[in-house]
Amino acid sequence: GAGVSQSPSNKVTEKGKDVELRCDPISGHTALYWYRQRLGQGLEFLIYFQGNSAPDKSGLPSDRFSAERTGESVSTLTIQRTQQEDSAVYLCASSLFREDNGYTFGSGTRLTVV
Amino acid sequence: AQKITQTQPGMFVQEKEAVTLDCTYDTSDPSYGLFWYKQPSSGEMIFLIYQGSYDQQNATEGRYSLNFQKARKSANLVISASQLGDSAMYFCAMRERNNNDMRFGAGTRLTVKP
User: Fold this and answer.
1) Do B108 and B12 form a contact (C-beta atoms < 8 A)?
2) Which terminus of chain B, N or C, has fewer Cβ atoms within 10 Å?
3) Beta bridge mates, B76
4) Does A5 touch chain B (CB under 8 A)?
């Protein structure tokens, strides 16, 4: 597609429920990133995928968070047993694997845990 | 560990004037890239400009220029001839050559006054 597509754009869920967030990167972009942005704050790195290599999960805050990506296609970020502290905007970005490439970000999923 | 510092939570500038947004960084890696992003109220992250650690000249992109002072570990963004549409959050970010993730500062909220 023309840009990075994320769905849903907004999600309200009850505490304790599981949620799945989807990211569809730009076609041909080998790298895919997930970030979390709490209200009024900067971006917090969560996870990075590069082609078929093992993902860099060093930013995942707890074992309730997981993400998958098949090849260079869609990625899903799953949060199990959601907590109120998980409320944030979750941003996905993709890029060509080049040192001077900025990322192209999606519009994000605003997650609210009530 | 890499660290990005943006010391100005908020800045005001008069329309048509220039403004400088500060960014300092800390890294022990001699090879790294510096990035600036704009985040309007719509929430999308827009890549503005890139500076490589080995670049001899300051990067420029239209009305954006990056004042890169390597010895001071400073990468300030200069916006010339400010426009009302420049009002947004601005994030400085850095990616080390050997790291997968891009680290972001806390951001500066720029408001352009008519």
Assistant:
1) no
2) C
3) B67
4) no
Partner-chain contact A56 B100, CB within 8 Å: yes
The shortest CB-CB distance from B43 to any of A41, A42, A89 is to A89
CA A83 and chain centroid, separation: 17
In a mutagenesis test of the B interface, which of A33, A38, A39, A43 is the best target, namely the one with the most B β-carbons within 10 Å? Answer: A43
> Alpha-carbon distance A77 to A24, whole Å?
12
pLDDT (tens, 9 = 90+) of chain B, 114 residues, equals 558 999 999 999 999 999 999 999 999 889 999 999 999 998 889 999 999 999 989 999 999 999 999 999 999 999 999 999 999 999 999 988 877 678 899 999 999 999
Residue type, B15: E
**A10 and chain B: CB distance < 8 Å anywhere?**
no
Phi then psi for A95, rounded to 5 degrees? -160, 160
Cα distance between residue A59 and residue B106, in whole Å: 17
What is the spatial distance between Cα B66 and Cα B75, in angstroms, rounded to a whole number? 6
